[in-house]
Specification:
Number of domains: 1
Strand order of the largest sheet: 1-2
Number of strands: 2
Helix content: 40-55%
Strand content: under 5%
Mean pLDDT: 88
Radius of gyration: 13 Å
Structural class: mainly alpha
Order of helices and strands: EEHHHHH
């Protein structure tokens, strides 16, 4: 079995402000990152991608259900869940600090 990278996710106030539908999305990203930590799925995000044309919402991979069911407060729509999953993928591939730099900061 492959060793699994585990990140300790930063506190919510250290995440860049990301608004989705006018609401602060950081708590939902933090919840998902903490879930990925608990499930030890950072390497999965780093090394696996949904098949072309399917995205995370339509992939059907068992890890997607593990993450969805493992969230502390799952208030996601399909769109916000998919967006958060892409954020986790980017964090896994680039590291949190680099991902943070890639986010457009509010003006």
């Amino acid at each position: 079995m492959q060793a699994t990278m585990t990140n300790t996710t930063p506190e919510v106030n250290e995440w860049p402000l990301i608004k989705v539908y006018g609401c602060d999305f950081r708590p939902m990203l933090k919840d998902m990152a903490d879930t990925v930590d608990r499930l030890q799925l950072w390497n999965w995000f780093e090394n696996e991608s949904p098949p072309g044309g399917s995205g995370y919402m339509f992939w059907g991979h068992p890890n997607i259900d593990l993450i969805s069911n493992g969230l502390t407060d799952n208030q996601h729509s399909g769109a916000t869940f998919g967006f958060a999953m892409r954020c986790m993928q980017s964090i896994a591939k680039n590291g949190f600090e680099e991902w943070k730099k890639m986010q457009k900061q509010p003006e």
